[in-house]
Fold these 2 entries.
Entry 1:
Amino acid sequence: MATSFKTFDPNKDSVVTRNLLHEAIPMTGTIVSGTYADLNIKNYSHGMFQSVYDYPFLSSSANHIFDLTCGYPATSSLSGASSTQNAKKINIYNQMAQVLAGFDAEGAVRRFDKDGDLTSGDKINEAYFINLTRLLSKDEVKKGSFTLSLGVNATYGSPFTETINITDASGSDGYKVNSPAGEYGILFANNGTGTPMATADPQPVGLLYYQAGIAVLTASVFGGILSSSAEMNASAETVDAVLSGSAISGNCDDLRHRFLNLSFNNSTELNSTVYFCRTNNTDFNYSSNPTYLSASKMVVKNNSQDVPVSYVTAVGLYSPDNELLAVAKLSEPLKKDPTTEFTIRVRLDY
Amino acid sequence: MPYYKFKSNEVYHNTLKTYPSIKFVVYSGSAHYNDNPSFRGSFADPIIPQKPGQVSLYEMNVDRSSSDTGRFIGPAVLSEPGDTPEIPGIPDNGLIFSFVSKNGSRLGFRSSATDVSWNAALYGTPLYGNYPYTSSISKEFYSPTTPRSASNPIYVSATNMTGAVSHLLALKNTINHYGYVSPEFAYSSSARDFNEVEIGLVNIPTIFYGSSIKKGTVDLKYYITGTLLAQAKDKNKNGLLMCTYGTSSVSGSTVGLVLYDEGILILTSSMELSSVSADAYTSSAGLSTPRWTYFAQSLSGSVLGTVGPDLGPGPDPTAGLITATSASFIMEMSGTSTTQTLTMFANAQKGQLNQSNNPTFLQYSTNNYASTGSKAYIENDKLQIKNVVSSSYPDPTGSFEKTTYISKVGVYDENKNLIAIAKVATPVKKTVERDFTFKIKLDI
């Protein structure tokens, strides 16, 4: 047991570090769009969003992977008394907008901005929301890693004949910070299979909030940006017709029908303090371990001329009033004598 | 709304101790935990990539199989343009997996990175880990000649493995520590030396049993072709496994030790349990008759050899897969799980809590608005309380009595922040003459 202490110099002997642990999260669209015959899709009686699991949710093995919902503001052209679940769609949009985009100087809820410049530019009025679960997004979605592939072929029955890839490719160095929910990047759409987009790609089609783990997708990915609008259901309705005429759960079903792939990397912050425990040549060459002595002689010394030797097996970290707070064990004992010096690096994760 | 401060005798911290039962069936190289079945998924069989006797610590890849999609998650190349060699991006193989980028923090994954591969990787290179992380029981068989330590070299290589000891020898101090329980807890004595006798070591990870195996609950059954051959229990609750059923030469004797806190069974009896029923326990080439040291032997990799993983002796690949197809084993016990609970007694005294701010507490026709003017703010001081006292007739009601219905109890911190709400199943009728105590229990 240690009977002598060395005091840390906080400026030189310890450093606080932050490392990122990542996970690669691929999600094939078949899970979302039909492998389990929608047994992995949970709709609620309130009808305001739909939950997607990676396995039929009645199984204890299932993981909740994301929620889907959609909405528009009261100023949207789709808003009207005849629209299905009109109030709920407005409430959903306003709720998401006030959390993610905040309020303006007059206290009004800001609408989502296509390019993140709140002072001017186009707004996202009709939007789909993909809320990734904390299980998958962890501390945040890794910037520049998000890819969502959607089938945008005009025919409802063969959605993946033409696809677009939606990425936050610019997110790694071009993200925005003017949101109360943290950092966000602009989602851009590129042609995937075929050239379904009406104009040259890439086109801004949404926002990805990294810490919140929420993707906001403009409904025009199935309409305005395409050469031919996609049929969103078997009745060949356009996205605007479905957004106004179908319930939120129906809109979510239609979005899932065109879900090809989703993948991103997540990040978890590992905060650490590294303590550099320095043993100089004259330090810790003696042990108070009972086995160190035998018949009042050091067992590791054969004659009086031998240098003292000890074996370091653990490092104790003590509080200023000498209370033992933590013990770091070495994988194998380190031989210590006056001819050697060590710096033992102790990392404490929290 | 009134607040009442909990008195010292109205708040208790308790520890709830539970004893979940554990059962392992070992047969033909596999362990099955608590009779859990294995399900086939649409894409993977089983749906969770783990063996039946394992507990998955990280069930992320549910019904997923690995396949090369040719895609990358994020950029296809992680290095800067023109840098050589090029660092490829994160592959999309259909599975969720973890990774860190190599940097100066020296972080890596034990499952994949070695010193050599870590040092060789360029900074910025992803270092990969794999899911799931599983835990399972294991069995080690030590014959009298199996080396216990490096002094009797067990794994010699160019790296620094010479200091390694076997798991059995690593338990020496622990075994000796329990010497106060019974003289049987001695690693080495005049009667027996664990370095020189046959030992079967069954390791049960703590995730299965919690803080400790409950004393007196260990029950081992040894079956041959489905017929019970022998049974051992720690019936005296002292860590000694007594053979309670079996051949007369063994029955009633101590056949092993249990380290309750450590989750270790040490089987010491090498006496023959049957002169027939020989099976391939220690070698696929030779047959042996049943004995307690062979308990759970059919777990694959149970025979230790002279080569193995980095630390300690490992399975002997030359012994082949030891399955002992005629033998099956059942191991049952109870673990110990503790849950801290907070119990609070919220008292509703007589004569108190007889007023509600709920609008329905007043007569429907009561006008409760306040009149304001340039010189006064006047509230209606004649608010009529709804009389809910029942009588035999719908109207008039019974004699008026102040009555409230308690539907929930709020728990506040010292700054009057609401931190918890306890709801009763049905509202409790509170009159002036009645008092109640609500017992609120919170697992923490």
Entry 2:
Amino acid sequence: MNQEIENAKAQMRKGVLELCVLTVLSRGDAYANDLINQLKQAKMIVVEGTIYPLLTRQKNAGLLTYRWEESPQGPPRKYYSLTNEGRQYLAELLNSWDELVEMVNAIRNQKND
Amino acid sequence: MNTTVNVSIGGYSFTLEESAYTTLQAYLNEVKIKLGNDKAAQETVNDIEFRIAELLSEKIATGQVVTNEIVKPIIDQIGKPEDIGDDGKAVGNPQYRAKRLYRNPDDSIIAGVCGGLAAYFRVDPLVFRILFIALIFLRGFGLLLYILLWIAMPKAKTPFQKMEMIGETETIEDISKRVRKEINDTSENLKKSKAGNAIGKIGSLLGQVLLYLLKALLVIVKVISIIIGVILIVSMLLVFIALVGAVFFASYSPDFSGVIGGVGMSLNEIISSVLDISSSYWITIPLFLTFAIPIVALIYAGIRILFRFKAKDGAIGIIAAIIWAAAVVSLSLTFFFQMRSLAVSEKVVKEFEVTPVNSNSKIVLCKTYNYLADSSLVEEKAQFFDWKIVKLKGKQQLAGTPNLIVEKSNETKPRFEVIRKARGVNNYTAQNNANDIVYSLTLNDTLAILDPLYIIPEKSKWKNQNLTVKLYLPEGYGVYLDESLTDILEKYQPYSNYWADEMVGKTWVMTANGLRIAK
């Protein structure tokens, strides 16, 4: 039972992760660590690994671009930023998210007549 | 102190304890398996490596050795391979299942060649071991083959490669379990080696030296194999070009020991004008394939030696072998039928008595003419053994050189014999074939003019025709051999102590002791 709940939760999180990544980036450019920290704070992700394939896919889809920047210590960092396409995509995603929330709420608030 | 390894992660160099290195390596391998093998997947793996490097450089001071205790939380932070993966969709296309030939390090006696072959063909490795040992007795062939395979087959190092070697689908869990077991084994081994004493250390040093010697030997073998590969490719390409030219095109083919000395005629043309066969391609195509397939195989072998690519060449190899066998069989059949058409030999003899009008002349004048002066006959196009292909009245004809022999006779008058010989399926056809040889000997008083060539008519084709002209000379009679006879005078004359080229241009008299030069 517990396992199933965990699975369902993970599925839900994964479904909206894309939206969250784009939202964070819409507030300003960020590199993987910033993204991870913000998403972790919001408890959107548990492990970091989830984010990398997603970023690569969004970048290849033309939603993101990146540039390399030196870091004060350690290897250089990839700073991601939203493209125009990414912004439009995010707007549409947010729209459908709102719709979805409304739909779910409507179902939950339905009273049996 | 544990052994340490210097590695570059995300472009940064770190010093890792061996156990930490093994853990990290296994982890990255698993991530790679999970993500697939295309460009996007590699990019993602690179991002993860960069992240690991970043986390490592946050956690350790410069120059500090990275231990397993540092690596493990980092791996936990990034997540298990099965959690990486975007929404269940892999970034790239997961790429496995193709079965590949690897050396099997888990089941090896020398280098794991037999183990790998066994894994590939799903049989007991013992089968291949016995096979190789048996082949060694075949002039060491097995050893050579083993070394070649050792070079050609890569070792299955990563779990992914081992999976490919077996060709079975393994779940990620299976691999993780095995990786964990391997890590434990390695650390146990490391512990054991710590307990080793001085003798053990010397032993391991010797082992290291031996290992380096072996590696040096391997490099030498690789260099030699590259040279062999280049030689194979270049020489076989040249042979192949020559073969195509000789068989199908009117080429300036290489003079293979003088058998086909002519130029400007392909084997295809020669066969169609020489042999009794519906199409010369019945011979030339199988003949070509019989030689071309092994040549191409050798070129391919050379390429495989030089570039170690992976190819599914098994099926092509089998098809090539079948075609080759078919070519050899059809060539043998054609050969058999050709031989059958040459089963029986027959000869036809015609006599010409020399009757001198001027009765006191006892000298027979023998000469021939330069056939090239005959306007209806054009130059020879190809020559093989005693036969040549000439153009007579615009048609390609097979021709041969007659042999003139001077014999001793007990009769009163000199006499010529023209002996035509040929082969055929039976006596009747053989006799016909012999009869059909076109040749003339013109006698005018004591002057005998011999044709320089005999012509084989198109309908009989090559039936090992042969034509001998014998001059039976009674004692006291002489013969003048004109210089024009150089080509047709038999080199060895039974009644002369001279070679044919010494005899022409002179008059010879038959004595009790054979031919003597006339005074």
